[in-house]
Amino acid sequence: MISAVVRVKMKAIAGARSNASLGSTRDGTGVVIDEKGHIVTIGYIVIEADSIEVTTQDGRTVPATLVGYDHATGFGLLRSTVPLKVKPMTLGDPAQLEVRDPVMILPAGGREAATFAYVVSRRSFAGSWEYMLDSAIFTSPPTMQWAGAALVDRDGKLVGVGSLLVRDTVKPGSPLPGNMFVPVDILKPILSDLIAKGRRAGSARPWLGVATESAQGRLFVTRVSPDSPAERAGIRAGDILLGVGAEAVKNHEELYRKMWSIGPAGVDVPLRVLQGADVHDVKVHSIDRFEYFKEKPTY
After folding, report:
1. 170: which of 111, 141, 283, 284 lies 20 to 30 Å off by Cα?
2. Domain around 215
């Protein structure tokens, strides 16, 4: 089981848009999930990669390529360029996890890095960066090596991939530190598409490039991605998002559900925005998030 866990190191392409928030070099954990050398990790480690290498538990370091990426779930899928000769970890069933179930967290680093935790909640998670999961896995106590770490159930199967360190694992506003894991049951339906096409089939969600924080029943703009649809439409940090069209929004979940229900990427998203003392109705022409991030040149 532990042999399937590998260290992932990545160097980003020059001028990568994600460098400002994630850095130009990143490392974390990946998990080998099949005999063909496919490795699942959390996507922010490998987005806009120029080079990727993975290191096995016995110290072998080999190049890997980014096979697929899914913005909706946050998964990244790699493949080693040479056989890793390790036993893959079987994908489990996160739906069987219950609150207070014991789990093992396996980051890269072998047995010494492994820690035990408990499932403290299964609930929705909405991030500030236009990201939402319907049923994330929250565990405590926290591990400090969460990025891409394997969450393993009592049967030794992979049930989640580490994403974040969080302050409120049980429910928002109730402090109990721990980690958020992306459940692998949402990887299973898209895995074949990621391997074959590099992304999930179907239309992408509209993306604006705006980060927000909810406070006192209002949604404050904290960051606007450079050259994003939101920036081009005049949205600025410090603005307050009041609604999508005529429908009021007070938190991330309301914003995302209303925005994504309008249509696929490319649709105009009508926002009601408070800028200073003035309320403006702004149309933001959304894009597919894949269009924003840079790819490694093929020449």
Report:
1. 111
2. 210-292
